[in-house]
From TrEMBL:
Keywords for this protein: Hydrolase
UniProt record similarity statement: Belongs to the Nudix hydrolase family.
InterPro entries, A to Z: Nudix_hydrolase, NUDIX_hydrolase-like_dom_sf, NUDIX_hydrolase_CS, NUDIX_hydrolase_dom
Boundaries of every Nudix hydrolase domain copy: 7-138
Name of this protein: NUDIX hydrolase
GO molecular function, one term: hydrolase activity
Amino acid sequence: MTETFETIRYTADVIVTTTDGHVLLIQRGWDPFKGQWALPGGHVDPGETSRTAAARELAEEAGVYAAPGELEQIGTFDQPDRDPRGRYITVAYGLTVLPGTTVEAGDDATLAQWWPLGSLPPLAFDHADLIAAATNRTTS
C-alpha cells in the first residue's frame, strides 16, 4: 500500500463584529482572491498558537488590537477545498467591539471596512461559512 502525504498549512482568522450588527472585512492585496473581501487572518508562525496568530493578524491587517485572551474560539475549518493554494486548516476566533471602532488597513490588506451583516459582499475562501458560524446564521 502506497502512503500519500499532503502538505497542510495552519492559519487563524478573526470574525470581528460590532454590537450593532457589522463585521470587519479586509480587501485582499495579494492572490489568491486579490481585490476580494475576506476576514483578517493568516498563517500561524513558528512558536505561535493560533490564538496569538489571530490577534497578531488582526492588528497587522486591520489596526485592531486585542489581547489573545479576548478572542473566543469559534471553530476549526478544514474542508479540503477551502483554499485554492492547497490544504489549509484554520481556527476561527470571534471578537465583539463597540460601533465606531477605528480600523486601518495594513500588511497585505488594501482596505479595512465595516460591513452590515445583512449586506455582505462576495467573500473569499469559505469566509461566509466562518461568519455564519460566529453569528449563528445560515449561509445560502
